[in-house]
Design goal:
Layout: E1 17-22, H1 29-42, E2 47-51, H2 52-58, H3 67-85, E3 90-94, H4 100-110, E4 113-118, H5 122-128, H6 133-138, E5 160-162, H7 169-183
Parallel strand pairs: 1-3, 1-4, 2-3, 4-5
């Protein structure tokens, strides 16, 4: 069962929340988070996307991929996300965050937390491989690679699970928006009209 602590289902325009997209590399976390952020910005919400790769470049530079370093990285993301959310920002975190206990610690830190498991089959992630990481990991060139040589612990109580091999980005965004509306974190965001270009 999902463990969201939200008790107030009446949306407020100033209410912050953290939407935490977790899943394997290449699952589509950043793609959906970025598209969702654009929709929310267009509706007038304050939005920040915290992408795992970008955070590692700046906030967590120097950390490796041991379990301890991964946990530190997730804890740092959770801390920043909490600060933003308590000031009314919708924070969209896109990070592999492979360990269940660390994500639950993030949930406890943040409070208003919506976990979205972006969960296409591993084969779909390997086939996409936008950064060429799976090819290197399968060749033994990248140690501690989640889903290949390191474990991924799927959520047991995510608010939403998305198999991005089964639908397009727009559908994924609409499903996340519907969940946020259901939980009272945002008002209904109208779908954008088709582009005339």
């Amino acid at each position: 069962m999902a463990k969201n602590t939200n008790a107030d289902t009446v949306p407020r325009p100033d209410r912050g929340v953290v939407v935490w997209f977790t899943g394997l590399s290449g699952a589509g976390k950043t793609t959906i988070a970025t598209a969702l952020g654009a929709e929310l910005l267009a509706s007038g919400r304050r939005v920040e996307v915290l992408d795992g790769d970008v955070v590692r470049t700046h906030l967590s530079k120097g950390l490796g991929f041991t379990r301890e370093d991964r946990d530190i990285n997730v804890a740092r993301i959770a801390f920043v996300a909490h600060l933003l959310a308590r000031n009314g920002v919708v924070v969209l975190v896109a990070a592999v965050s492979p360990y269940r206990a660390t994500r639950e610690a993030a949930r406890a830190t943040i409070g208003d937390f919506v976990e979205v498991h972006v969960a296409p089959p591993l084969d779909a992630c390997v086939a996409r491989d936008p950064k060429g990481l799976y090819k290197k990991a399968l060749a033994g060139e990248i140690p501690h690679f989640t889903g290949v040589s390191d474990p991924y612990e799927p959520p047991e109580g995510a608010e939403l699970t998305l198999d991005t091999s089964a639908f397009d980005v727009t559908t994924g965004v609409q499903r996340v928006l519907a969940k946020l509306v259901e939980l009272g974190f945002v008002e209904r965001v109208p779908a954008r009209p088709p582009s005339l270009a």
